[in-house]
Design goal:
This protein is of the alpha/beta class. It folds into two domains: about 80 residues, Arc Repressor Mutant, subunit A (Orthogonal Bundle), CATH 1.10.10.10; about 210 residues, D-Maltodextrin-Binding Protein, domain 2 (3-Layer(aba) Sandwich). The chain is about 40% helix and about 20% strand. It has ten helices and eleven strands. Strands 3, 4, 5, 6, 9, 10 and 11 form a seven-stranded mixed β-sheet that branches. The longest helix has 27 residues. The protein starts with 5 loop residues before the first helix and ends in a 6-residue tail after the last helix. The model has no long low-confidence stretch (mean pLDDT about 90).
C-alpha cells in the first residue's frame, strides 16, 4: 500500500461523509472528476470497491465502512499531533466543533462566549440536535465535544458532569392549576400533554414518569423542538414536561408557570462527552476544562 496517502484518505473521508463526490470536491477544493480519480486509485491500491456508485446517494460498501472507521482514527490522531506541534511553536490555531442537545442552546452560547474571550485564536462551531444524532456524530468524529445528558450505557464516551439539569411541568399562566400546592399526579389525568417529537430524550423521560405513576393522559399533541412546545403551552393547548432552560424568559415575563407537582422538579445532569478512543487535542482540553469550571454557573436557572 505504498500509495495510500493522507490526501487520498481525506478525499475518501469527505466523500463518505457527504455521500457525494461533487460535494466532497467542494470541501476539498477539487473537481468531481479529480475526486472520482482519487477514489479509483485508492480502490485499485486496496484491491476492493469502497463505494456503491450505482446507489443514490452513493453508499459505502462493507470494505468502505471498515476503511472509514480506521481513516477517522488516523485523521483524528494526526490532528492531535498537529495541535501539539503548533502549541510548542506558540502559534496554536484551530476550530472546535461543539454539539449540544436542544435545551443547551439556551445557555451554551454564554459559556462559549466566555471561552472565546480567553482564547480568541480558536474558531468555534456549534451544532444543535437530538442526543442520539449527536452521539453518532461524535463517534464519527464530526464533532469534538458533546454537551448533553447521560448517554446510553453502550456509548463509547467519557462522561464528566458539570451542572444539574432541572425538568418541570409547565402550563400557561392562566391555567387553573397555577398556584395550587403539592399537586398529585392523578390530578393531571384529564390534561393534554404536549409531547416532544419521537426520539427526544425529554419525551422518553416523560413517558417513563407516566409509566411509573401508572397515569394515562391525553398525548395527541406533538411538537418538533422545545421552542414549539413552549409556544403551544403559552397558547393554552396543554401542559408539558420540559427542561427548565427552555422556559426562562417566559417564566421571567409571567407568560408561563411551573406547576407544583409532587416529586418535581426532576434533576438530571449536564455532562460533557468526549470520545474514549482518541486523546483530546490541546484545544479540546481547553474547552472541556472551561466547561467543567464555568458550566455550573452558566447553566443556573430558575424553576419557579
Amino acid at each position: 500500500m505504498r500509495n495510500l496517502t493522507l490526501r487520498g484518505l481525506r478525499v475518501f473521508e469527505a466523500a463518505a461523509t457527504t455521500g457525494s463526490f461533487s460535494r466532497a470536491g467542494e470541501l476539498m477544493g477539487m473537481t468531481q472528476s479529480a475526486v472520482s480519480q482519487q477514489i479509483r486509485q485508492l480502490e485499485e491500491e486496496l484491491g476492493t470497491r469502497l463505494f456503491d456508485t450505482a446507489a443514490r446517494p452513493i453508499r459505502l460498501t462493507e470494505a468502505g465502512n471498515e476503511l472509514l472507521r480506521h481513516t477517522r482514527v488516523i485523521l483524528a490522531q494526526l490532528s492531535v499531533a498537529e495541535d501539539a506541534l503548533s502549541t510548542l511553536q506558540g502559534s496554536f490555531r484551530g476550530q472546535l466543533h461543539v454539539g449540544v442537545v436542544s435545551p443547551g442552546q439556551f445557555f451554551v452560547p454564554r459559556l462559549l462566549t466566555s471561552f472565546r474571550r480567553q482564547h480568541p485564536e480558536l474558531r468555534l462551531k456549534l451544532s444543535q440536535g437530538r442526543r442520539d444524532q449527536l452521539l453518532e456524530r461524535l463517534a464519527e468524529r464530526q464533532i469534538d465535544l458533546l454537551i448533553g445528558g447521560y448517554p446510553p450505557a453502550e456509548a463509547e464516551v467519557e462522561i464528566e458532569v458539570f451542572a444539574r439539569h432541572p425538568h418541570c411541568i409547565v402550563a400557561s399562566a392562566d391555567h387553573p392549576l397555577v398556584g395550587a400546592k403539592d399537586i398529585e399526579w392523578a390530578a393531571l389525568s384529564d390534561e393534554t400533554f404536549i409531547l416532544r417529537e419521537s426520539g427526544s430524550a425529554t419525551r422518553a423521560f416523560l413517558e417513563h414518569l407516566l409509566q411509573v405513576q401508572r397515569l394515562q393522559v391525553r398525548t395527541d399533541v406533538e411538537m418538533q423542538g422545545p421552542v414549539a412546545v413552549v409556544a403551544a403551552v403559552m397558547a393554552g393547548m396543554g401542559i408539558s414536561f420540559v427542561s427548565a432552560h427552555t422556559v426562562q424568559s417566559e417564566l421571567a415575563s409571567g407568560r408561563i408557570a411551573v406547576l407544583d407537582v409532587q416529586e418535581m422538579p426532576k434533576l438530571l445532569d449536564w455532562c460533557v462527552l468526549t470520545r474514549r478512543d482518541t486523546p483530546l487535542s490541546f484545544g479540546q482540553r481547553l474547552l472541556r476544562d472551561h466547561i467543567l469550571a464555568e458550566g455550573g454557573a452558566a447553566a443556573t436557572c430558575r424553576i419557579a
